[in-house]
Write a structure and sequence with these properties.
Elements lengths: L1 H24 L5 H30 L13 H13 L3 E6 L4 E4 L1 H7 L3 H4 L13 H14 L2 E9 L5 E12 L5 E10 L1 H57 L7 H31 L8 E4 H12 L9 E4 L6 E4 L1 H18 L6 E9 L2 E8 L24 H4 L5 H11 L3 E7 L3 E9 L1
Parallel strand pairs: 7-9
Antiparallel strand pairs: 1-2, 1-5, 3-4, 4-5, 6-8, 9-10, 10-12, 11-12
Helix pairs in contact: 1-2, 7-8, 8-12, 9-10, 10-12
Length: about 450
């Protein structure tokens, strides 16, 4: 429209000038009118050109801005900068030479440097030694492919500590599409890594426990087999040595008689040791049979006296039953006999000769019967009381060789009592004796 106005106005002006010029040269009554018409046309053409030029100047001089698709408005740029700065994830911007151009506060805090110390440094300054080669390969791969996603790298802080991180990068290009650098995101996966380590450690420990259980099971089976095999040759030794002690000695001298007695005594101890080993393994493997039935307390105590009285002969020990109840109880009578036997045998070993005294008894206490074995022996040292029910424990190591004992007796007592839903405990004072108690529900 502006081009057409300029040309039309110019032609109109020229046409008006020609008409005005013709009116000046023509003689006649209408020459003045022709001249006036030419002036009007010339003036009109001038006005049209002037108006066209004003409109054209307004349009032609207005600035034209080319908006690139990569150009963001200040508002958008501020928004993304806010996200970058406020992100809890570690972020940094690097160029193609690996120089850090910018980083967010989370990155500054985690690495322990000030922002001024970070900007301008190589990204490799923040990589742990064991990941340097991996970081170099990752950086070169990024420059070739323009892609990095969840690569595990160990990073190094200012204080020298390291942490595992997953690194990902999105590329930054210039207006010509040339790669300028990347905005890198680093996720600190220390907690995940530690949890993974804990799970691996638990799995490793589980495997070790399984292996140990298998070894322990095999060991238990071996002990059981050895103990049972040993009982086979022990049985005739015990049988015939006992026979020799009972028949007239004839021409045997005192030393030979003593030897026969020693053979018999040691055969008895060896047999008891094999029985103890078998009992311990049965308790450990939960294969010991518990047969409960009702019986009277006085019947049990009479059997205990009969079973254990021969043990008192050699040391001339006073043996007393002070039971105060005959109430019936439902439990395993045979195994309770075994508990009494072990506790009384243990007491016999540590009471004095001729002046020794062992008292057994049973009394009612609520819904239970409390049994006890009391002696006037050497007692138990305070520092050793916590070990009484441990395997291989001896009340006093200095007495071990003198009195023998497998160290299984009290362990067996504890195992039997607890499997019968009872409790076992003791009271002792050094030099004044010991009392072992065990309660069994009625």
């Amino acid at each position: 429209m502006s081009g057409f106005g300029n040309i039309g106005g110019l032609m109109l002006g020229i046409f008006g000038l020609l008409i005005a010029s013709y009116g000046l040269n023509v003689q006649g009554p209408f020459s003045s009118q022709v001249f006036f018409l030419g002036v009007v046309c010339a003036a009109s053409g001038g006005i049209v050109v002037w108006l066209s030029m004003r409109q054209g100047k307004s349009v032609l001089t207005q600035p034209y801005t080319v908006i690139s698709q990569k150009t963001t408005s200040p508002k958008t740029e501020s928004k993304y900068k806010s996200i970058y700065e406020g992100s809890p994830v570690l972020q940094r911007t690097v160029n193609t030479s690996g120089i850090i151009l910018d980083c967010n506060p989370a990155y500054v805090k985690n690495f322990g440097y000030s922002k001024e110390e970070i900007i301008g440094r190589s990204l490799f300054d923040h990589v742990g030694e064991k990941s340097l080669d991996d970081m170099k390969k990752t950086f070169e791969a990024w420059k070739k492919s323009g892609r990095v996603e969840n690569v595990e790298i160990w990073f190094k802080r200012k204080d020298g500590t390291t942490f595992p991180g997953l690194i990902s990068a999105n590329n930054i290009y210039d207006d010509n599409g040339k790669l300028m650098g990347s905005n890198t995101v680093i996720r600190d996966v220390s907690e995940i890594y530690q949890a993974h380590q804990v799970l691996e450690e638990h799995e490793r420990q589980k495997i070790q426990i399984d292996e140990l259980q298998k070894i322990d099971s095999a060991k238990g089976e071996f002990y059981m087999t050895v103990a049972k095999e040993c009982q086979i040759p022990i049985s005739p030794i015990l049988k015939y040595s006992k026979l020799l002690t009972e028949i007239p000695h004839g021409n045997l001298d005192e030393k030979q008689v003593e030897a026969i007695t020693e053979i018999y005594d040691n055969a008895v101890k060896l047999e008891q040791l094999m029985i103890d080993i078998i009992d311990v393994q049965k308790l450990n493997s939960n294969t010991m049979e518990f047969k409960k039935a009702q019986f009277n307390i006085d019947g049990l105590m009479n059997e205990v006296v009969k079973l254990c009285k021969p043990m008192m002969t050699e040391k001339k020990i006073e043996f007393v039953d002070s039971s105060s109840t005959t109430k019936p109880i439902t439990s395993d009578k045979t195994l309770l006999n075994k508990v009494f036997f072990n506790l009384i045998q243990n007491a016999v070993d540590f009471v004095p000769t001729k002046e020794g005294r062992i008292e057994i008894g049973a009394k009612e206490q609520g819904d239970s019967i409390v049994f006890y074995v009391k002696d006037n022996g050497i007692g138990i040292l305070e520092k050793r009381k916590d070990f009484v029910f441990k395997k291989f424990y001896q009340v006093d190591i200095s007495f071990k060789r003198k009195y023998g004992g497998s160290g299984f007796g009290l362990v067996i007592c504890k195992g039997i009592v607890e499997n019968l839903a009872g409790k076992i405990w003791f009271e002792s004072k050094e030099g004044e004796g010991t009392v072992f108690y065990f309660s069994i529900p009625t």
